[in-house]
Amino acid sequence: MNLTENIKEGLRSIQGNLLRTILTALIITIGITALVGILTAIEGIRAQVDSSFSSLGANSFTLEGTRWWRRQNAGRNEKIYPPLEYREAKKFMEEYTFSPTVTVNTMVSGNVEAKYLSKKTNPNSRLMGGNNQYIAIKGYKLSSGREFSNPEMKYAGLVAIIGSEVQSTLFDKVDPLGKEVVVKGLRFKVIGVLEKAGGMFGGGGADRTILVPLETARKVPTSFDLTYDITVSVPKVEDLDEAIGEATGLMRAIRHDRPGQPESFEIESSGSLREELDGITGALKIGGGVIGFVTLLGAAICLMNIMMVSVTERTREIGIRKALGATPLRIRQQFLIEAIVICQLGGIAGVLLGILVGNGMSSLLGANNFVVPWFWMILGLIVCVTVGLIAGYYPAYRASKLDPIESLRYE
C-alpha cells in the first residue's frame, strides 16, 4: 500500500465510524476554541487600545493628583497628597517652556444627566471642563459645529460640545446645534458634536462627554473641590523623556515638594500605560494557553483511547493487510493519518469558532474591530497535528507490531 491509498483508507475508516469521529473532533474543537478564542479576544482588545493610543498620540503625558486606588492596587502605603489646584495648573501653564501645547482639564462629574425638552440621558455622562487644545491633544474630532471661541473660554460662556451618544439620545434626527441642554441646573448652548469614538470596557469615552469651557466648569455648583489635570504634548516622541523631566521639576517647585521626598503628583504617559497593558495581556495569554492546553490534553487522551479501540476492532483487517505484504511502516501511517485527520477536523472548526467567539468577547468589552489572528490560527492547526501524532503514535505502533497469523485468528 502506498501513502495515497493509506490516506484514502484512513478517510474511509473515519466515515465508517462517523459518530465516534464527530464526538472526538468536538473535544478537539472545544480546546482549540478556548485557545484561539481567548487569544483573539486579547488581540482585539489590544488592537483597540493601540488605536486609541495612536489617536491620543504617543508624544503626550498627563500630570495629575495622586489616585488612592492606584496606590492601594500597587500595594503601596504612600501618603495621598492634595489634588492639583487651579492656581497650580495655571502657574504650570505660564512657566512651562519646553512645549507650547499644554492644556488643563477637569472632570466636574462622571455621572450627570443631560436634558433636552422631555428627553434625558442616563446619569452616566461626563461633564468635563477644557479648551480647544484639550480636544486636539485627546485626538477628538468634531463631526459638526465648531470649537470654543476665545471670549467663551475667557468669560465662562454657557456653551457645550457633546459626544455622539449624548447627541443620539437627546436629539435623534434633530440638529442639536443651537439647541440648549440642561446639565446640573444650567442651560448650555450646543455648539459642536464630537465624532463617535467608542470606548473600552463600556466606559463610553468621548461619546458620553459634555465638554464645556474650563472657566465655565469652575462655576458649576459641586459638593467637592475640583481637581485639575495637565496634559502636555511635545512635537517629537524622542523629546518625551526630557519634557517629562522638566515638567516634573517645575511641578515639584510649584507644589513645594522637598528634596528627597516623592512627588506629590503623578505622571501618566502612553508608554507607561502600554507597559501596564503588556503585563495584563501577557498574563491573559498565559491563562488562555493553560486553559487550551488542559482541554487539549483531555482530548488527546480521549483520542488515544478511541484509536486503541479502533486497533482492537480491526485486528483481522491488520492481519490481512500484513499477509498481503503491508509493512509495519504503512500500518503505522494508516492509523497516524486517521488520528491527524480527526484532529484537523476539530482544529479547523475550533479555529473558526475561536475567531467568532474571540471577536464577540472583545466587542462586548468595547472593541469595534474584527481581528483575524493568523499566527494563532496557524499555531492552533500545528498544535492539532502535534496532538494527533502524540495520541495516535502508540496505537499505530501497537497495530504495526501485531503478528499477522495471530491477527487472522482474532475473533
Secondary structure layout:
Layout lengths: L2 H14 L1 H39 L3 E5 L3 H6 L12 H10 L5 E12 L1 E3 L2 E2 L4 E6 L1 H6 L4 E4 L4 H5 L4 E4 L1 H7 L9 E4 L2 E9 L14 E5 H5 L9 E6 L6 H16 L10 E4 H44 L1 H9 L4 H37 L9 H27 L3 H6 L2
Parallel strand pairs: 5-10, 7-9
Antiparallel strand pairs: 1-11, 1-12, 2-5, 2-11, 3-4, 3-8, 6-9, 7-10, 8-9
Helix pairs in contact: 1-12, 2-10, 2-12, 2-13, 4-9, 10-13, 12-13
Whole-number radius of gyration? Answer: 32 Å
Distance between the termini: 25 Å
Unreliable runs, pLDDT <50, ≥5 residues?
Answer: 68-75
- Strand segment count: 12
Q: Report the average pLDDT across residues.
A: 79
Major beta sheet, specifics? Answer: 12 strands, mixed
Strand content: 15-25%
Helix content: 55-70%
- Which series of helices and strands comes N to C? HHEHHEEEEHEHEHEEEHEHEHHHHH
**Assembly classification:** single chain
Number of domains: 2
**How many H/I helical runs?**
14
Structural class designation = alpha+beta
Give the overall shape, derived from the CA principal axes.
Answer: elongated
